[in-house]
Amino acid sequence: MSIAKKEYKRITVKTLVDMKSKGEKISMLTAYDFTMAKIVDGAGIDVILVGDSASNVMAGHETTLPITLDQMIYHASSVVRAINRSLVVVDLPFGTYQSDPKEALRSAIRIMKESGGHAVKLEGGKEIKDSIKRILNAGIPVMGHLGLTPQSIYKFGTYTVRAKEDHEAHQLKEDALMLEKAGCFAIVLEKIPAKLAREVAESVSIPVIGIGAGDGVDGQVLVLHDMLGMTHEFNPRFLRRYMNLYEDMTTAIAQYVSDVKSKDFPNNEEQY
Ligand code: KIV
Protein backbone atom coordinates (compact mmCIF):
# COMPACT_ATOMS: atom_id res chain seq x y z
CA MET A 1 0.00 0.00 0.00
CA SER A 2 1.38 3.43 -0.95
CA ILE A 3 1.83 6.23 1.55
CA ALA A 4 -0.13 9.38 0.59
CA LYS A 5 1.77 11.86 -1.57
CA LYS A 6 2.97 14.69 0.66
CA GLU A 7 2.64 17.68 -1.63
CA TYR A 8 2.38 20.06 1.34
CA LYS A 9 5.35 20.18 3.73
CA ARG A 10 3.33 21.30 6.71
CA ILE A 11 -0.45 21.59 6.85
CA THR A 12 -1.83 24.88 8.12
CA VAL A 13 -5.38 26.19 8.33
CA LYS A 14 -4.66 28.08 5.11
CA THR A 15 -3.58 24.87 3.36
CA LEU A 16 -7.01 23.40 4.08
CA VAL A 17 -8.82 26.38 2.57
CA ASP A 18 -6.52 26.14 -0.51
CA MET A 19 -7.31 22.42 -0.78
CA LYS A 20 -11.03 23.19 -0.85
CA SER A 21 -10.60 25.81 -3.56
CA LYS A 22 -8.61 23.32 -5.67
CA GLY A 23 -11.21 20.58 -5.09
CA GLU A 24 -8.65 18.45 -3.21
CA LYS A 25 -10.26 16.31 -0.49
CA ILE A 26 -9.00 16.66 3.09
CA SER A 27 -8.16 13.57 5.18
CA MET A 28 -8.61 13.69 8.94
CA LEU A 29 -8.36 11.03 11.67
CA THR A 30 -8.33 11.12 15.44
CA ALA A 31 -5.28 10.23 17.54
CA TYR A 32 -4.72 10.51 21.27
CA ASP A 33 -1.18 9.24 21.94
CA PHE A 34 2.39 9.57 20.68
CA THR A 35 2.83 6.16 19.01
CA MET A 36 -0.40 6.20 17.03
CA ALA A 37 0.02 9.87 16.08
CA LYS A 38 3.49 9.13 14.69
CA ILE A 39 2.04 6.43 12.42
CA VAL A 40 -0.94 8.58 11.36
CA ASP A 41 1.24 11.61 10.60
CA GLY A 42 3.83 9.50 8.75
CA ALA A 43 1.11 7.94 6.59
CA GLY A 44 0.23 11.37 5.22
CA ILE A 45 -2.94 12.44 7.03
CA ASP A 46 -3.74 16.14 6.66
CA VAL A 47 -5.43 16.78 10.02
CA ILE A 48 -5.14 14.93 13.33
CA LEU A 49 -8.06 15.53 15.66
CA VAL A 50 -7.37 15.01 19.33
CA GLY A 51 -11.06 14.32 19.80
CA ASP A 52 -12.94 14.16 23.06
CA SER A 53 -13.84 10.68 21.76
CA ALA A 54 -10.73 9.88 23.85
CA SER A 55 -13.29 9.76 26.66
CA ASN A 56 -14.81 6.69 24.96
CA VAL A 57 -11.94 4.90 23.26
CA MET A 58 -9.10 5.68 25.66
CA ALA A 59 -10.89 5.96 29.01
CA GLY A 60 -13.89 3.67 28.48
CA HIS A 61 -16.58 6.20 29.40
CA GLU A 62 -20.00 5.80 27.83
CA THR A 63 -20.09 9.44 26.64
CA THR A 64 -17.65 12.24 25.85
CA LEU A 65 -18.84 14.32 28.82
CA PRO A 66 -16.47 13.18 31.60
CA ILE A 67 -13.13 13.98 29.93
CA THR A 68 -11.41 17.01 31.49
CA LEU A 69 -9.35 19.86 30.08
CA ASP A 70 -6.23 18.50 31.83
CA GLN A 71 -6.79 15.08 30.24
CA MET A 72 -7.30 16.62 26.77
CA ILE A 73 -4.07 18.59 27.23
CA TYR A 74 -2.24 15.38 28.19
CA HIS A 75 -3.50 13.59 25.04
CA ALA A 76 -2.86 16.58 22.78
CA SER A 77 0.69 17.17 24.00
CA SER A 78 1.52 13.48 23.37
CA VAL A 79 0.20 13.84 19.80
CA VAL A 80 2.02 17.12 19.15
CA ARG A 81 5.36 15.53 20.15
CA ALA A 82 4.85 12.94 17.40
CA ILE A 83 3.95 15.00 14.38
CA ASN A 84 5.99 16.52 11.57
CA ARG A 85 3.38 17.53 9.05
CA SER A 86 -0.26 17.25 10.13
CA LEU A 87 -2.38 20.06 11.53
CA VAL A 88 -3.37 19.17 15.11
CA VAL A 89 -6.90 20.22 16.16
CA VAL A 90 -7.91 19.70 19.79
CA ASP A 91 -11.48 19.38 21.10
CA LEU A 92 -12.50 21.71 23.90
CA PRO A 93 -14.18 19.29 26.31
CA PHE A 94 -17.71 19.60 27.68
CA GLY A 95 -18.09 22.28 30.35
CA THR A 96 -15.05 24.34 29.36
CA TYR A 97 -16.63 26.79 26.90
CA GLN A 98 -20.44 26.79 27.16
CA SER A 99 -20.95 28.92 30.25
CA ASP A 100 -19.20 32.13 29.24
CA PRO A 101 -16.86 33.45 26.53
CA LYS A 102 -14.09 34.38 28.98
CA GLU A 103 -13.96 30.85 30.30
CA ALA A 104 -13.98 29.55 26.71
CA LEU A 105 -10.98 31.71 25.89
CA ARG A 106 -9.13 30.61 29.03
CA SER A 107 -9.72 26.97 28.09
CA ALA A 108 -8.56 27.50 24.50
CA ILE A 109 -5.45 29.34 25.69
CA ARG A 110 -4.57 26.48 28.03
CA ILE A 111 -4.86 24.01 25.13
CA MET A 112 -2.65 26.12 22.86
CA LYS A 113 -0.01 26.95 25.52
CA GLU A 114 0.19 23.63 27.34
CA SER A 115 -0.24 21.15 24.46
CA GLY A 116 1.19 22.99 21.46
CA GLY A 117 -1.90 22.12 19.37
CA HIS A 118 -2.63 24.29 16.35
CA ALA A 119 -6.39 24.87 16.64
CA VAL A 120 -9.43 24.04 18.76
CA LYS A 121 -12.80 22.51 17.91
CA LEU A 122 -16.09 23.42 19.64
CA GLU A 123 -19.50 21.80 19.25
CA GLY A 124 -22.52 23.96 18.51
CA GLY A 125 -23.93 26.91 16.56
CA LYS A 126 -25.51 30.20 17.51
CA GLU A 127 -25.66 29.35 21.22
CA ILE A 128 -21.85 29.45 21.46
CA LYS A 129 -21.25 32.27 18.96
CA ASP A 130 -19.79 34.65 21.56
CA SER A 131 -17.35 32.05 22.84
CA ILE A 132 -16.18 31.30 19.29
CA LYS A 133 -15.67 34.99 18.55
CA ARG A 134 -13.74 35.54 21.77
CA ILE A 135 -11.36 32.66 20.96
CA LEU A 136 -10.92 33.80 17.36
CA ASN A 137 -10.16 37.35 18.52
CA ALA A 138 -7.21 35.96 20.47
CA GLY A 139 -5.76 34.56 17.24
CA ILE A 140 -6.66 30.94 17.94
CA PRO A 141 -8.04 29.07 14.90
CA VAL A 142 -11.45 27.47 15.50
CA MET A 143 -13.07 24.49 13.80
CA GLY A 144 -16.87 24.30 14.23
CA HIS A 145 -18.88 21.09 14.72
CA LEU A 146 -22.57 20.79 13.78
CA GLY A 147 -25.13 18.00 13.31
CA LEU A 148 -24.70 15.21 15.80
CA THR A 149 -22.86 16.86 18.68
CA PRO A 150 -22.03 14.09 21.18
CA GLN A 151 -21.54 16.55 24.07
CA SER A 152 -25.33 17.20 23.87
CA ILE A 153 -26.28 13.52 23.94
CA TYR A 154 -28.52 13.93 26.99
CA LYS A 155 -30.51 16.66 25.21
CA PHE A 156 -31.29 14.36 22.26
CA GLY A 157 -31.19 10.97 23.95
CA THR A 158 -29.89 9.08 20.88
CA TYR A 159 -27.01 9.05 18.42
CA THR A 160 -29.35 8.89 15.38
CA VAL A 161 -29.03 10.97 12.19
CA ARG A 162 -29.60 14.70 12.85
CA ALA A 163 -31.29 17.48 10.83
CA LYS A 164 -33.75 15.24 8.99
CA GLU A 165 -36.59 17.67 9.73
CA ASP A 166 -36.78 20.90 7.70
CA HIS A 167 -36.54 23.25 10.67
CA GLU A 168 -33.38 21.51 11.98
CA ALA A 169 -31.83 21.51 8.49
CA HIS A 170 -32.60 25.22 8.17
CA GLN A 171 -31.00 25.96 11.55
CA LEU A 172 -27.93 23.91 10.66
CA LYS A 173 -27.45 25.88 7.42
CA GLU A 174 -27.78 29.17 9.34
CA ASP A 175 -25.26 27.97 11.92
CA ALA A 176 -22.77 26.99 9.20
CA LEU A 177 -23.01 30.46 7.65
CA MET A 178 -22.59 32.01 11.09
CA LEU A 179 -19.44 29.92 11.75
CA GLU A 180 -17.97 30.98 8.42
CA LYS A 181 -18.82 34.65 9.03
CA ALA A 182 -17.37 34.53 12.55
CA GLY A 183 -14.05 33.36 11.09
CA CYS A 184 -13.88 29.59 11.70
CA PHE A 185 -11.42 27.88 9.32
CA ALA A 186 -13.45 24.67 8.89
CA ILE A 187 -16.59 22.87 10.04
CA VAL A 188 -17.17 19.23 10.97
CA LEU A 189 -20.63 17.91 10.04
CA GLU A 190 -21.53 14.74 11.87
CA LYS A 191 -24.23 12.24 10.90
CA ILE A 192 -26.61 14.31 8.78
CA PRO A 193 -28.23 13.54 5.40
CA ALA A 194 -25.71 13.61 2.51
CA LYS A 195 -27.86 16.03 0.49
CA LEU A 196 -27.91 18.59 3.29
CA ALA A 197 -24.16 18.23 3.90
CA ARG A 198 -23.47 18.82 0.20
CA GLU A 199 -25.65 21.96 0.26
CA VAL A 200 -23.77 23.28 3.28
CA ALA A 201 -20.36 22.55 1.71
CA GLU A 202 -21.42 24.38 -1.44
CA SER A 203 -22.73 27.38 0.51
CA VAL A 204 -19.54 28.18 2.44
CA SER A 205 -15.99 28.91 1.29
CA ILE A 206 -14.36 27.17 4.29
CA PRO A 207 -13.77 23.37 4.22
CA VAL A 208 -16.54 21.12 5.49
CA ILE A 209 -15.32 17.78 6.85
CA GLY A 210 -17.87 15.02 7.24
CA ILE A 211 -18.36 11.98 9.40
CA GLY A 212 -21.45 10.12 8.29
CA ALA A 213 -22.29 13.13 6.09
CA GLY A 214 -21.81 11.63 2.63
CA ASP A 215 -19.51 12.34 -0.29
CA GLY A 216 -20.47 15.93 -1.13
CA VAL A 217 -18.25 17.50 1.52
CA ASP A 218 -14.61 18.64 1.32
CA GLY A 219 -13.05 15.95 3.49
CA GLN A 220 -13.68 12.99 5.77
CA VAL A 221 -12.90 12.20 9.40
CA LEU A 222 -13.14 8.91 11.28
CA VAL A 223 -12.18 7.78 14.77
CA LEU A 224 -8.86 5.93 14.39
CA HIS A 225 -9.78 3.02 16.65
CA ASP A 226 -12.99 2.45 14.67
CA MET A 227 -11.43 2.49 11.19
CA LEU A 228 -8.64 0.16 12.35
CA GLY A 229 -11.24 -2.25 13.73
CA MET A 230 -9.93 -2.06 17.31
CA THR A 231 -13.45 -1.34 18.52
CA HIS A 232 -15.96 -3.90 17.36
CA GLU A 233 -19.26 -3.15 19.08
CA PHE A 234 -19.75 0.11 17.15
CA ASN A 235 -21.09 -0.48 13.64
CA PRO A 236 -22.71 2.60 12.10
CA ARG A 237 -23.39 2.54 8.35
CA PHE A 238 -20.85 5.30 7.66
CA LEU A 239 -17.91 3.42 9.18
CA ARG A 240 -15.49 1.73 6.79
CA ARG A 241 -13.12 -0.62 8.60
CA TYR A 242 -9.66 -0.86 7.00
CA MET A 243 -8.40 -3.57 9.36
CA ASN A 244 -9.73 -5.95 11.96
CA LEU A 245 -7.18 -5.19 14.66
CA TYR A 246 -9.49 -6.47 17.40
CA GLU A 247 -9.17 -9.97 15.97
CA ASP A 248 -5.52 -9.67 14.92
CA MET A 249 -4.44 -8.34 18.33
CA THR A 250 -6.46 -10.94 20.21
CA THR A 251 -4.83 -13.71 18.13
CA ALA A 252 -1.33 -12.27 18.67
CA ILE A 253 -1.80 -11.87 22.43
CA ALA A 254 -3.33 -15.34 22.79
CA GLN A 255 -0.29 -16.74 20.91
CA TYR A 256 2.07 -14.91 23.31
CA VAL A 257 0.20 -16.31 26.33
CA SER A 258 0.47 -19.79 24.87
CA ASP A 259 4.21 -19.37 24.06
CA VAL A 260 4.97 -18.22 27.62
CA LYS A 261 2.96 -21.05 29.19
CA SER A 262 4.51 -23.69 26.93
CA LYS A 263 8.04 -22.28 27.58
CA ASP A 264 8.48 -21.69 23.83
CA PHE A 265 9.21 -18.01 24.58
CA PRO A 266 11.96 -16.94 25.04
CA ASN A 267 14.04 -19.36 22.95
CA ASN A 268 17.86 -19.54 22.90
CA GLU A 269 18.21 -16.63 20.45
CA GLU A 270 15.94 -14.43 22.50
CA GLN A 271 18.11 -14.32 25.63
CA TYR A 272 21.60 -13.13 26.72
O1 KIV B 1 -14.26 13.55 19.22
C1 KIV B 1 -14.24 13.14 18.05
O2 KIV B 1 -13.63 12.11 17.72
C2 KIV B 1 -14.97 13.92 17.05
C3 KIV B 1 -15.12 13.31 15.69
C4 KIV B 1 -16.13 12.24 15.72
C5 KIV B 1 -15.42 14.33 14.65
O3 KIV B 1 -15.44 14.97 17.33
UniProtKB/TrEMBL annotation:
> Domain of life here?
Bacteria
Binding of 3-methyl-2-oxobutanoate, residues: D52, S53, D91, K121
What reaction(s) does this enzyme catalyze?
A: (6R)-5,10-methylene-5,6,7,8-tetrahydrofolate + 3-methyl-2-oxobutanoate + H2O = 2-dehydropantoate + (6S)-5,6,7,8-tetrahydrofolate
UniProt-listed Enzyme Commission number(s): 2.1.2.11
The record's principal subcellular location, in a coarse class, is: cytoplasm
Q: Which GO terms describe its cellular component?
A: cytoplasm
Q: What Gene Ontology molecular function terms does this protein carry?
A: 3-methyl-2-oxobutanoate hydroxymethyltransferase activity; magnesium ion binding; methyltransferase activity
Residues engaged in binding Mg(2+)? D52, D91, E123
Write one Pfam family the protein is assigned to. Answer: Pantoate_transf
Manner of cofactor binding, per the entry note: Binds 1 Mg(2+) ion per subunit.
Q: Where is the active site?
A: E190
Q: Which CDD domains match?
A: KPHMT-like
User: What biological process terms from GO does the record include?
Assistant: methylation; pantothenate biosynthetic process
Compartments, as annotated in UniProt: Cytoplasm
Cofactor(s) listed in the protein's UniProt record? Mg(2+)
Q: By its UniProt entry, which SUPFAM superfamilies does this protein fall under?
A: Phosphoenolpyruvate/pyruvate domain (SSF51621)
Q: Pathway listed for it? A: Cofactor biosynthesis; (R)-pantothenate biosynthesis; (R)-pantoate from 3-methyl-2-oxobutanoate: step 1/2
**Top EC class, one word:** transferase
Role this protein plays: Catalyzes the reversible reaction in which hydroxymethyl group from 5,10-methylenetetrahydrofolate is transferred onto alpha-ketoisovalerate to form ketopantoate.
What NCBIfam families does UniProt report for this protein, alphabetically? panB (TIGR00222), PRK00311.1 (NF001452)
Q: How does it assemble?
A: Homodecamer; pentamer of dimers.
- Name of the protein in its database record: 3-methyl-2-oxobutanoate hydroxymethyltransferase
